[in-house]
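Subject: sequence -> structure tokens, single chain

Hey, anyone have a minute? Need the predicted structure for the following. Not urgent.
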Amino acid sequence: MENWEKEAKEHQKAYKYMLERGDFNKMLKALPDLSEAAFNKIDCLQCANCCKNHSPRFKQPDIKRIAKSLHMKEGDLVAQFLVLDKEGDYVSRQRPCPFLAEDNTCNIYEDRPSDCERYPYTDEDVLLKRIPLTLKNATVCPITHDVLERLLEMQPPKSGKAGR
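Reply:
Had a minute. Here:
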């Protein structure tokens, strides 16, 4: 998995083309196995780029659950850790995530936001439907990159003109 970041940047056009024009149902069917294989060979704790570079949306049920686990009032949790973004969603006030520990573990793992639990969406249709998000995630997350590379391998070769 060396140089995955460079490869992810170089393959952006190929990923975009595949996601826009590939066989949606074939790719969707392959995602669970490809995702599981990627998670089995890549250790998130070695990277934590998601926690260092992105913020999940903290939805109201997430805020309620996290505040309870931290023995805080919901308003205090929001005031201390969150801010409203331009879409009107609560996101982390700082990068890296304030709940990321030095060893790349999550201090609220059992109560983490649903966006964190689902990230990087490699086993669901979000990967195929939200192309700009997927392309961005490919440059941040080695698992997303790996799944997209495996999907590229499944694509039929582009037909060219026959000739000499």
